[in-house]
Amino acid sequence: MRIPSGLSGLAGLLSLTSRQFEPDSHPYVDAETGLKFAAYNSDRGIAFRVALPTLEAGKEFDTVLQIAAPIDIGWVGFAWGGTMTYNPLAILWANGTSNPVISSRIAYGYYTPPEYEPATYTVLKTGTHINATHFQITALCKGCSKWGDEEIGFTEIEATAEETTFGFAYGNHPVDNPASIDSTFAIHDSIGHPIYNLAVATNADFATKVAAL
């Protein structure tokens, strides 16, 4: 059993040392973008990669999400808070053979997650492509490292945490309208909650590097 300690507010609940558990992620340096990622590969060969800037603790920051998936998967989801409800989601799919799509969503129950405006994704040309077997999206996210409000409180990702739980899901059936970023889609066929070591995912000169992609 692994217990995450990467999200602010959880550390006080844990009496275990941060190195007691090994993460599911591994370091990955992307040859296309030059960014360092913490990466996890799922059972269907879907790669989920996260890159972060080097920052002082407690500061909100931008992130880069890179996902590569087999072309025959209907859609892929990534949850920044480790669960599929009440945190920023990225939903991705391939639209034909030339246009991968990423949609910012948030889930409140067992129905298609609606749009989530506080988190925005900018697709980076470098690192985004489709071929005969896979599609890949590399996107800058603003609003994925901190979420919530004054009423319910805020949750933050710690940029150098060695144990942060993210979540993923995928569906085998295509989305209903691949050309629309607001498309509905069927419920997932599989989910997972991998533990990431974000300490290996920090990048010096992050903003400069991302601006060049």
Report the principal-axis shape: globular
What structural class do you assign from the helix and strand content? mainly beta
Radius of gyration: 16 Å
Number of strands: 17
Count every helix, treating DSSP H or I runs of 4 or more residues as helices: 1
The helix content, as a percent range, equals under 10%
Strand residue content: 35-45%
Span from first to last CA? 39 Å
| Mean pLDDT reading | 89
Low-confidence stretches: 1-19
Q: Biggest β-sheet: count, sense, barrel?
A: 8 strands, mixed
What is the H/E order?
EEEEEEEEEEEEEEEEEH
Q: What is the quaternary state of this protein?
A: single chain
Question: How would you sum up this structure, described in words?
Answer:
- Pfam families: CDH-cyt.
- The chain is an all-beta fold.
- 3% of the residues lie in helices and 38% in strands.
- Strands 1, 2, 3, 4, 8, 9, 10 and 17 form an eight-stranded mixed sheet that branches. It has a five-stranded antiparallel sheet with strand order 7-6-5-14-15, with no helix packed on it.
- A hairpin with a 5-residue loop joins strand 2 and strand 3.
- The chain is globular.
